[in-house]
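User: Just a sanity check before I run the rest of the batch. Below are the structure tokens for the first item. I only need the designed sequence back.
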């Protein structure tokens, strides 16, 4: 059994009907791998930055009826939470694994965090061709950066800064049958390479 990588069975968790049943499936099938990823990448980030990071597994605690469409682990420098800070995430929807870095609308100093991305606009545009942006973390759709113009990126960043619900993440995704999910080694190599790119935008 794999320690880190997500199997086709893991993606099917999001087909389980009902909040309680799906949460039980997430707990038994996905969270053990998120915990393992949490240990690995907490150490990775603590080694590759001057800060101390903490892992935060999504609890979905506010849900009372609708089952979650995705789940994740986030990494931030606050032991109590991550939404108020720029943070890293690894997670999955029913047809997508995602890894990303950015800021949610709850971030305390969101404008300052977006400033960092604006100052590194050329670095964003020069990322490898499979990198994407995510202007809304609850949606699976993440446009490829290579398909966007400089004006598109500038507008997205401006909206993230100005709108109360605005967000901005840089992301990379995998489909359930991607070769990077065939083994723990391949998956970890993919994630580490992605984190190294994302660290360019860590303030």
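Assistant: Here's the designed sequence for the first item:
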């Amino acid at each position: 059994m794999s320690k880190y990588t997500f199997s086709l069975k893991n993606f099917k968790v999001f087909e389980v009907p009902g909040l309680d049943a799906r949460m039980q499936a997430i707990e038994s099938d996905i969270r053990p791998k998120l915990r393992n990823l949490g240990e690995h990448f907490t150490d990775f980030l603590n080694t590759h930055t001057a800060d101390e990071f903490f892992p935060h597994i999504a609890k979905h605690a506010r849900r009372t009826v609708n089952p979650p469409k995705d789940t994740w682990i986030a990494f931030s420098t606050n032991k109590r939470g991550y939404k108020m800070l720029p943070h890293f995430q690894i997670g999955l929807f029913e047809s997508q694994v995602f890894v990303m870095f950015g800021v949610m609308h709850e971030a305390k100093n969101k404008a300052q965090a977006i400033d960092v991305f604006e100052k590194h606009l050329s670095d964003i545009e020069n990322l490898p061709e499979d990198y994407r942006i995510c202007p809304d973390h609850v949606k699976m759709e993440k446009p490829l950066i290579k398909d966007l113009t400089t004006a598109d990126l500038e507008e997205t960043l401006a909206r993230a800064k100005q709108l109360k619900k605005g967000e901005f993440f840089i992301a990379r995704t995998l489909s359930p049958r991607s070769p990077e999910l065939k083994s723990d080694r391949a998956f970890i190599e993919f994630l580490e390479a992605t984190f190294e790119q994302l660290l360019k935008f860590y303030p």
